[in-house]
Structures are given as C-alpha cells and as structure tokens.
Amino acid sequence: MRTLIDFVQRIFKTNMVSEFGTIFLFIVTAIVLIVSMLMLAKLLRPHKPNVEKLTTYESGEDPIGNANVQFNVRFYVVALVFLLFEVELVFLFPWAVVFGQATLIQQTDGLWGWFSLVEMLIFVGILVLGLAYAWAKGYLDWVRPQPKVPVIETKVPANLYQKVNEKYGRPSVNEK
Amino acid sequence: MTIDVALIIKAIIILLIFGITLLIAMYSTYGERKVAAFMQDRIGPNRAGPFGLLQPLADAVKMFFKEDFIPSQASKWLFILGPCLSMLTALMTSAVIPFGDSVKYESAPGKVWDIPVQAIDVNIGILYVFGVVSLGVYGIMVGGWASNNKFSLLGAIRAASQNISYEISMGLAIIAILMMTGSLSIRHIVEQQHGGNWNIFYQPLGFVIFITCAFAECNRTPFDLPECETELIGGYHTEYSSMKLGFYLFAEYINMFVSSAMISSLYFGGYNYPGMDWVQAQLTGSLGEIAGHNVGTLIGTLVFFAKSLFFVFFYMWVRWTLPRFRYDQLMNLGWKALIPLAMINIILTGGAILFLKPLIVSFLK
C-alpha cells in the first residue's frame, strides 16, 4: 500500500514525465470504465443465440459469398498521398512553434522570420508539386459511373431523330 | 500515510472530467432529438421524466439489457475490440482540454495550492489531441472489417479515407494558429487570448477550414458517409447491437463535445470573455483573494461550457440543414479545395506576422 501511494505521488510530480503519468492514469481509468460497462452489460442481458440471429445481415437475404469484396483502388491512392502530407505536417509543427519567436526575430533584426518563411515555402513547394502532379494525372478524381451509350447498327443516321424532333417539336404530355 | 491534498484534488478533477464528459455526451443525445424535433415541428421525447429529461437514462438501460449478437462469420475479438477502441480514443482526448483557469486552495496558512482546472497541461497538448483523434479511425476500421459484412466494410473504408483526407487540412489550419501563438500547449494558447482577444479575429479562414474538418472527423452530416443509412444500412456498425453499438454512438457524441471544446479553446478564447479583468477585480474586492479567484474561475468555466455547448448545438443545427455529400464531392472538397486553402492560409498568416504586424505596431507608436 505504502509503495503504491509513493508510486502515485511520484507520477504526480510536476515534471514532464509525470505529466504523461497523469495521462497514463487517465487512460487506465478509461479502460476500467469501458471494461466494467461491458461486463455489467454481459451480466444483465439475455443470451439466447440461434443460427438465424447470428447470420450476417444482408438486407434480409442469405449472405452471398465472403464480405472481403474488391473495392475501388482510389482508396489506396488516397492513402499514399495522405502519407506524403502527414509527414510534411509532422515537420511543420516544430517549424510553426519557432517561426514567430520574438527573441529570434529581434536577434537577427527581423531576418529570421523571412528566412524561415522562405525555407518553409521551398519545403512545402516541393510537396505541393507532388499534389499538383497527382491532381494533373487525375489521381484525385473519384471514378464516377460513365453512362454507356448502346451501339445500334442501323441504316438510319443517328441525328435523324434529332432533326425530326427539332422540326416538329417534342410532343408534350398534355397534347396526346 | 499522508496523501497530498493536491493529489486528492487532482484525482477528483480527473473523475469529474470523466463524469462531465460522459454526462454531456449523454445529454447530447437528448439534445439532438429535441433539436431535431424542434426543427421538424415535432415535440420530441417527453415521456421519461419532466420534458423527457430522463430519456438518456432510459436509453442507457435499454443498451444494457439488449441481447448482444456476435455474427458467426465475424472475427470475435476484433469485433469486440472495435467499439472499445473507438470509445477509448474518444475518452482520452478530454485529458488536455483546459476547462477553466485554476482553483486556489490554502492547505495551511501561507501555503496556497494553485491547481489548474484541467486533467493535465502537457506542453504538446495539441499534438496529443491530433494524434489521438487520428487513432480514432482504427476503432471504426477494426469494427467494420471484423464484422465481415459488405456494408460494414464499405463504411469502414469510407471512414478511413475520409478521416485521413480531412486530417491534413485540419493539421494545416492548426499550424497557422501555432505560428501566431508559438506554443503547443492548449493552456498557453487559451491564455494568449485574454479578454476578447480571440484567435477567430486573426484566423477567420483557418476557423472555417477547421470546423469543416471537425465535421468530417466526427463523421457528422453532411460528411456522414461512413454510416449513411440510405446507402449502407448502418455503415460500419450494421452488425453491432447492445452495449457495443452504444459505445460507437457514445464515442461520436464525446467526439462532438471534444471537438467543440477544441474549437472554443483554439478560436474563441476558451474560458476568456470580454471584461473578465473587471469582473475578477470586483470579485477579489468583495470576496477576498482566494474565494474571489475561485468564483472567477467558476464563471470562466461556465463561459467555456456555454461556448462548447453552442458548437454542439451547431453540429445538430447543420445536421438538419445541409444534405449529405456524394463521395466524389467529399473527396474533391477535401483535396482540391481545403488543402490549397489551408496552404494559402499559412502563407497569409506568415506574411501578416512578418509584414503587417510590424507595420501596425510602428503605426500605433
């Protein structure tokens, strides 16, 4: 008991490690809460499974095949482009913190701000090139279903119907 | 065996923050239904208790007593892990939100404790929130995949893709704030907005980007494609029932509250309000140093909750105002509009700090 209290007190001391100690306690409390709620629900609820209840839901029909279906490859491309930008973000966080520091700007006579801004612009610029490339290549466009125009082999030219319609006007619903 | 008073107060604050977060999440469900009813000219829940105020309790009891199915095709442990992860990440984020200034407590004459009303003030608060929110997608992903249901899988993939797309512009909007404040601690950022000196006046574009991304990260309408009922039945939680479904729904409401709290801390001054110095002076004048400070903190905390709850209401308001996006529109907005805008916002902020600020300062001299 004594050592436990010592341990808890050490966690709460006011340096950096102990701050994360509090977050650790926070997480432990959250896990305890979640597990206890699940356990309580398990004790309270009825448990009468049967085959019908345990089938996978598929709009009331018997499920067909496995659920691991093929999906659009664009999701994968988006994840790849995301990776590029997330790494960029991680590098920008420390930059943003030192960018506006008054002491650094004063020491360098205002040169620091311009220098770091230009530096950042070059860094981001290279990555924006990547985004522009993906954009121009159409990787950011989501595939939309293209309507298929059926090909009909007929001697009547395709625009004849159009001409007929234009000449006589389209019959409206009221004039039938 | 003497335990520090500060330690006890700290433990009480941790439990209190959990309690308040859960309570607000519970009553957000009630609020959502009442707001929806109001906007659709209905009455809404009014049977359980006065004005239906006990409805969230009745819902919780229902969640506890419902039978729980784990589909025979599902991967059992991942199926259980999914909602738990979702709930855990949602609960973890509230650790670093500064709810109020600080509570002063005199344990012995001349020995005054100054305890911030916050679970923990880490110096990388924003990075912590940002990281934990990114983890949130795993809960949906794991749950949706483990269900072994086609609708769930599609919902989970949509959620993952949507969250990562909007995370980037959210991070870029936060970076513009960091450039102004020069600190990653949320408490520092809030303290710099003392009185009415709120960041929204300096970062209007950043705010619009941030709030749009917050909607997308919380999977709320108009970005609720991972669970849109007209296309995917229930999306990633189609197969869930009982308490596990409750976790998913609850996590969504906790996320809503936490993101509202983040919006009010980052852009609307947190517990600061115009004229707070005058109020504080009046209070310390009439109530004494310590009691006056504590009452002032209480008022600040109430202001913070008022701001946060307004944004929770805003989420509901938008839900019944805007229709849902199509998926290609969602992706276009994220990649082709918000990311370039956020980049421009950063460059504008940098230019303003380096060029406009010295100009204004020299003009005022």
From TrEMBL, chain B:
Belongs to the complex I subunit 1 family. Its main location: membrane. This is NADH-quinone oxidoreductase subunit H. One of its GO terms (cellular component) is plasma membrane. GO terms for biological process: aerobic respiration. InterPro entries: NADH_UbQ_OxRdtase_su1/FPO, NADH_UbQ_OxRdtase_su1_CS. It is a multi-pass membrane protein. NDH-1 shuttles electrons from NADH, via FMN and iron-sulfur (Fe-S) centers, to quinones in the respiratory chain. The immediate electron acceptor for the enzyme in this species is believed to be ubiquinone. Couples the redox reaction to proton translocation (for every two electrons transferred, four hydrogen ions are translocated across the cytoplasmic membrane), and thus conserves the redox energy in a proton gradient. This subunit may bind ubiquinone. Pfam families: NADHdh (PF00146). Keywords: Cell membrane, Membrane, NAD, Oxidoreductase, Quinone, Translocase, Transmembrane, Transmembrane helix, Ubiquinone. It comes from the Bacteria. It comes from Runella aurantiaca.
